[in-house]
Design brief:
6-stranded mixed sheet; 14% strand; alpha/beta
Amino acid sequence: MYKSTRSKNENSEITSSKAIINGMASDGGLYVLENIPKIDIEELSYLNYQELAIRVMDLLLDDFTSEEIRKIVYQAYDDKFDITSIVNLVKTRDCYFLELYHGQTLAFKDMALSVLPLLLQEAKKKNSVKDRTIVLTATSGDTGSAALSGFSKQEDIDIIVFYPTSGISEIQEKQMLSFSGNHSKVIALDGNFDDAQRLVKTAFNDLRLKQFHLSSANSINIGRLIPQVVYYFYSYSKLLEEEAIEVGEKINFVVPTGNFGNILAAYIAKKMGLPVNKLICASNTNNVLTDFFRKGIYNRQREFIKTSSPSMDILISSNLERLLYYASGNNESLVSELMKYLIEKGNYQINEKIKKGLGDFYANFATEEETLMAINKEFQESNYLIDTHTAVAYSVYEKYVLETGDMTRTVITSTAHPFKFPKAVCQALKMDYNGKDDFTLIEELSKRSNIRIPRSILELKEIYSRTIWSQSEAYRNLEKLLGEIHEKN
């Protein structure tokens, strides 16, 4: 059963299907499992990705049957992914890269957003929800296109995606706009990701909008988070299969982090029994999380910096609330108080108990220069091309080793295809990129790296128009759009 991070009410526990339908709790909190189940690592060895996903998700989705989960998993992880293994674990000189970008939109978000629409559809059946669902989603780049792709075939669900007007790559924007249709709206918000996320959260907490059946595709939805737990177990299973580690041997994970959902999934995997030594939280120059883990203070009142790793350009990391819940010993009152401080004052400071509960983590950040240097170094020394977000993670990993001397086997989550950010990658490789569009640069990168251009990119050359909302008009426009969708259906 799931409950809110902010509610002490014993009657507030709900099933996983209802948590998925709701997206967020009515008190503004996020749904969590109070007691996370354990799993036997040895049972997971040599399973393919789909079978392992069924095992893991079966433990976390309390009111879904094993057969329902099996049907969803095999429907989600099919030929939409360009490799049969779904993900790929690549060894380079000093670490492993877990490639999570082989889905339709070439980012790790496909791993969960191929599953969430099917979970939501099944959850509605279970709870006899016949009303149309409107999914509201804020994106800093990749979530939007993955959500639009995942929900595109769901006839009883509409989706509205908000993204910042600048800061994302041309490829990211074209991917989103290419999915605009009868049941999907893509809107550029004149602001940053935090502004878009605030718009979505405000809508969820507005009693006037309760007439609309709203849900979310962001990682605030537990149905988005659960599928992400799987690939951490899978990477461990592959290391066992390759005899790189022994059963029970601990490994490190390095995760490029913005909204804190991906690394929280790794944390949940550890609580389920995955042998993890250290979870390395990698930030770009929007390093609010680095300060949090190092100083115990979360302060969003700082300059928002647009970087070459836009999916991490975030100052309010929503999923950190779930970590606070677990690290505080499931103290709902304290979490509620901290979130109130964040909303009203823009910052909060954690107590000693929570600090002790963060021992699984190491945090650091990479500058723009260090990010580009990491891309160049990995390509020159290992002939392996990584994107900007993965480069942030690799740069932080090098700092971690230098600082700690820890040579534990380490897996870096590679979260996006390098061709999604061609200007930055070309700049890192010291290629001429001035005056060239993304598609020209991708062709040049393909020749340089000997990596084929994914079909999903080749299909994006059409020119798409975009809708832009100013912040002053955004909420009024959203209310109007929700009404139009409701009337139409």
